[in-house]
Write a structure and sequence with these properties.
Elements (H helix, E strand, L loop, with lengths): L3 H13 L7 E2 L4 E2 L11 H23 L7 E6 L6 E7 L7 E7 H24 L12 H5 L4 H25 L10 E3 L12 H27 L8 H22 L17 H19 L8 H18 L14 H18 L13
Parallel strand pairs: 3-5
Antiparallel strand pairs: 1-2, 4-5, 4-6
């Protein structure tokens, strides 16, 4: 197996490991950001880790070429099994000592791989039985659309890319803010997943802003994949089918990140918005993005996408470990849907008032 990319990863992180400030989880007093050595990666997962490093390197180069990202970002996997991901800037005593960081837990990657395998098996059974809403015409042969790419890999790649782009969005947010007073030594990020604290409007704005950036990147990737399909497979329904499964990829990721989506609904509780709020915001972003990027005169089938997504998510999550399907419109009261829409409108208005957000700066 070619380990060239991971060898480069190891050498790069050897150069910075002594410069990274320890971040402690106050509940366990454990370091959550220690670099995980590629030498210990299980062989069955190695290719996924290797591909992730390669993707991160290419994505960073693309963002820098567009002028969206100003500084080099050090990407690495952390040893911690429970903490998920982080993106931000560790400020040194002077600017030359600053480190832009994106980290992802090796435990998250391994859980994600296994869960996508499990979910794809359940989805394949549902697809074969064609258990879809009556208003959805025709079968969904997602495996035929994906070709050589397995459904499990597609779901994993959607979630993987979303995590990285969400976290690097936090780095770009930091780059849009004034640097702290010279002489301070701190870590700054709009991502505070490592610390359990009360509601913060600022961080809800930062999280939703990062989600928007990652969602737009996901839309462009899916559209690019669609554009490379054989002519006979380039249909309006197939594009909606692809996007429905892409949303499922994000939903699966949120399931892993949120303790199986068991948390009760809230607006103002933790520093991250509730998953159902985030999913509704992502769906809105998808609809807006496809309005901009689909070919002239092409009408994106929003109804088909959301109907397939909500229907399959309920069926799959009901058959695997008893998920709670927060985002299925049938399971949310009309009042709550309206409350979520109003909350998102309020957050968007405030997002446009903050100069450091990617949405205000029109990045992505």
């Amino acid at each position: 197996m070619n380990r060239g990319i991971m060898d480069k990863y190891a050498k790069t992180n050897d150069l910075i490991k002594d410069k990274i400030q320890d971040i402690f989880d106050p509940t366990t007093n454990e370091i959550t950001n220690r670099i995980y050595s590629y030498a210990y990666i299980d062989e069955q997962f190695f290719q996924k880790f290797d591909d992730f490093v390669n993707f991160a390197e290419n994505e960073q180069a693309f963002l820098k070429s567009k002028g969206f990202l100003l500084n080099e970002v050090h990407f690495y996997f952390t040893e911690n099994e429970e903490k998920d991901a982080f993106g931000g800037i560790q400020y040194g005593l002077n600017q030359s000592e600053d480190l832009s960081l994106v980290t992802v837990s090796k435990g998250l990657i391994e859980r994600h791989i296994k869960y996508c395998d499990l979910i794809s098996s359940q989805l394949s059974k549902l697809i074969r039985k064609n258990r879809l809403p009556k208003d959805i015409k025709g079968k969904i042969d997602i495996n035929d659309i994906l070709g050589d790419l397995s459904l499990s890999d597609f779901l994993f790649l959607i979630g993987r890319d979303f995590v990285f782009n969400h976290e690097i969005a936090h780095v770009i947010q930091c780059e849009g803010k004034p640097r702290p007073v010279p002489g301070t030594n701190q870590i700054d990020s709009e991502n505070t997943a490592r610390v359990k604290e009360d509601y913060s409007e600022r961080h809800h704005i930062g999280e939703l802003d990062a989600d928007q950036f990652a969602s737009r990147a996901m839309c462009k990737k899916v559209l690019n994949y669609y554009n490379n399909l054989p002519v006979e497979k380039k249909t309006r329904d197939n594009l909606a089918n692809l996007m429905a499964f892409a949303l499922l990829g994000i939903y699966i990721l949120f399931h892993i990140l949120s303790n199986e989506m068991k948390s009760k609904f809230f607006f103002k509780n933790t520093k991250h918005p509730h998953q159902s709020i985030r999913m509704q915001a992502i769906i809105q972003t998808v609809n807006e993005t496809f309005g901009l990027y689909t070919p002239s005169g092409y009408i994106f089938n929003k109804h088909r996408m959301t109907s397939i997504f909500s229907n399959l998510s309920v069926q799959v999550t009901g058959s695997v470990e008893n998920f709670l399907a927060h985002i299925n419109p049938k399971n949310i009261s009309v009042k709550r849907q309206k409350d979520i829409s109003n909350y998102l409108d309020e957050m968007m208005q405030k997002t446009m008032e903050l100069d450091w957000t990617l949405t205000k700066r029109e990045i992505g």
